[in-house]
DUF1934 domain-containing protein
Amino acid sequence: MRQTKIPVWIEMNTAITEEDDTEYTTLRAAGTYSANGGLTVVHFTEESEEVGETKTLITIIADKVSIKRSGGFEMKQVFIKNQPTENVYRHPYGTMHMETSTHAMTFSPLATGSPAELTISYTVTLNQAQSRRHALTLRVQEESNG
């Protein structure tokens, strides 16, 4: 069965907390959304003056979310509730080991007149030393023709 890629607008908000300091970022991009059975895929490309073009592929399957980024930096981060996962984050300034502990995760698929929304609450430990709490919210809205 062929998946139909729907043109969408994406907004990804992150909050990263280290001790008492929280850093907020918002990313907006055009991309595609496709769903087939229990698999949802969101794809978009972002531009950055620091690292250039980065492609992001988010796959959502039941209790598992995978975010793969490639281009200016590379990483594949996997989120499974109550199960730690590990990956390597490669960027122009070096390589870091990441351990991700997912605390909560919800997903509402795209529906007519209603955006898709993915929320993930997790902790990342870099190089087995520095831990930071993260909150990610991804909203995906179908492009309107008007």
Observations:
- The beta strands are 6-18, 21-36, 39-48, 52-61, 64-71, 75-80, 85-91, 94-108, 116-126, 130-142.
- The chain has one domain: 7-142.
- The domain at 7-142 is CATH 2.40.128.20 (Lipocalin).
- The chain is about 0% helix and 75% strand.
